[in-house]
Amino acid sequence: MTERVLITGGRGLLGNAVIDDVRARGWHITALQRSASGRADGAESSAGVESPAVRDHLGDVTDPRTVDEAMDGCTAVIHLAARVGIDGTWRDFESVNVEGTRVVLSAAQRHGIRAFVQVSSPSVAHAGHPLVGAAAEPADPTSARGHYSRSKAMAELLVLGQDEVPAVAIRPHLVWGPGDTQLIGRIVSRARAGRLFMIDGGTALIDTTYIDNAAAAIGAALERMHAFDGLGRELCGRSLVVSNGEPRPVRDILISIVRAAGLDLTPRSVPYGPAYAAGGVAEAVLARRGVEPPVTRFLVEQLATAHWFDQRSTRRLLDWRPEVGLDEGMERLARWYARGESAHSGVAT
Description:
By secondary structure, this protein is α/β, with parallel strands linked by helices. The model is unreliable at 342-349 (pLDDT under 50). The two termini are 31 Å apart. It has helices at residues 13-24, 64-71, 90-110, 146-160, 183-192, 211-227, 230-235, 250-260, 272-285, 297-304, 312-318, 326-339, and strands at residues 4-8, 28-33, 54-58, 76-79, 115-119, 131-134, 167-172, 175-176, 197-199, 205-206, 209-210, 239-242, 248-249, 268-270, 307-309. It has one domain: Rossmann fold (3-Layer(aba) Sandwich), CATH 3.40.50. The longest helix is centred in the first third of the chain and has 21 residues, at 90-110. α1 (13-24) packs across α6 and α2 packs across α3 (90-110). Helix content is 41%, strand content 16%. The protein contains twelve helices and 15 strands.
């Protein structure tokens, strides 16, 4: 009998990719988000036997009744829904990322959910220092930078700090791909406007995750946890960072992205000190008005600080390896831009 999984936040780039991956694994899917996922089809075979299908359940993860209704008939949860970005008050982030997670987790406990995959972020354990071949350190709201990272750290601790529902936290690192309006879209937009920069020559090594690889890792976590075999039991209660495992200098990654978009330019280099100070001013002046600043202290730290992770435990515990390498991903991105980005409708989480 085909099992059903509730996927929250299925409207975004990663959410859509996870829906496609999990459906290909043979799962029925209920996608809970505030607008249509774009994947719902209610597929059914000609013999009248239901095949893996996707149905939308519109609503908000902060509404207990909506979450209860959406979770009916499910045996697993992938919790992707989150407020992202840097603009907004602490309450904006807390209400969705912390309280929304609490609502989903409480429903999972009532419904006897067998596997809970919390989609988190490496930023929950990043205090600004270099991460070189690092492991997945415990989430720490006291040192996490910014409202998003702090609220996601609190959410991760909520999920992993209980023992009623088997749970794992998966932290995809800098997810990107065709249709991405967050990482890729912002880099290309800034390049076109002549505002793309790197810090101190862009020599810091960073890793990223191609969208298909991130989705497959989350799908693998679902299957391992739901089966609760040897690897599933070992996964329970852990956090794993997911990435391509191909660290490159920031400069190389930025240049590859803008060239994939058909632009021939090299980002200008800015010294760390002045850039960090400018980020602080921009946050004080713009972020408090609800306007996203063009530069923040967190962005400057990210561009100046090495952050790449040891993937050996992740690959072993998930029984997973990335199938799309960084260079192949860039080629796919270039083909997407060559076909005309205006013809696409990718939306990021």
